[in-house]
């Protein structure tokens, strides 16, 4: 996976694990995004499948599908996406946000409130998605009137206890709870 473009004001943070990137995507006035960083993992080998790997670390309710081709965010759950086949260009943070190229083995952890969409994808593109704690997710597009409802909902989403790949000792607890 490679970062193609960044959002002005976004930060790329070094982690102890060189295969993980952390990007902070800030509120653009329409899309809330999150003070929690988006985590991007490279070259993940999920031997028994992403569903089992995610579930073993408390990220459940898995599904297999693509990624919507319109900017949207979830105000009720943190989401993880693991690419199983094909490729896509994902935009995170809204129209002027971060652009990522995802390929099999790419995993992206998206905090509640962070806008995302597939700007382009191959015909066979597929991800396994899940949410921290199996929480139900909603779909918001940054429409007028949404913020009054979604900002408090985003703040109420509990922080995961474990990284979807590395569990309690993984990168996510360190970066999200510091």
Automatic annotation (TrEMBL):
Gene3D superfamilies: Jelly Rolls (2.60.120.10)
Secretion signal span: none
Stretches assigned to coiled coil: none
Pfam families the record matches: Cupin_1
Domain Cupin type-1 residue range list: 72-127
Protein name: Cupin type-1 domain-containing protein
